[in-house]
Amino acid sequence: MELFSENKIGELEQKIDNLIKNYKGMKEEHEKLLGRIKSLEGENTELKTKMADVKNERELLIEKVTKILEKVEKVEV
């Protein structure tokens, strides 16, 4: 009596082939997602830098406007 029949061996080979195919597809998708994450992290860093720059510019503008208002108040007195 055979331990495995030809049909069982064929089924096992097919299942293994499917597992390998699925694994390769998942690995490929994983690599794509890693690349996307890296890209998004770079964009996030750029946006954080831009936000900090805008905040600094806003603070400078507020300082300048405050000084102008102080000068105007002095003139009115």
What does it look like?
This protein has 77 residues and is mainly α. It is built from one helix and no strands. The chain has one helix spanning 6-76. The chain is rod-shaped, with a radius of gyration of 33 Å. The model has no long low-confidence stretch (mean pLDDT 93).
Summarize the structure.
Helix content is 92%, strand content 0%. The protein has one helix spanning 6-76.
List the helices and strands and how they pair.
Elements: H1 6-76
Low-confidence stretches: none
Number of helices: 1
Structural class: mainly alpha
Radius of gyration: 33 Å
Q: Which keywords apply here?
A:
mainly alpha; rod-shaped; 77 residues
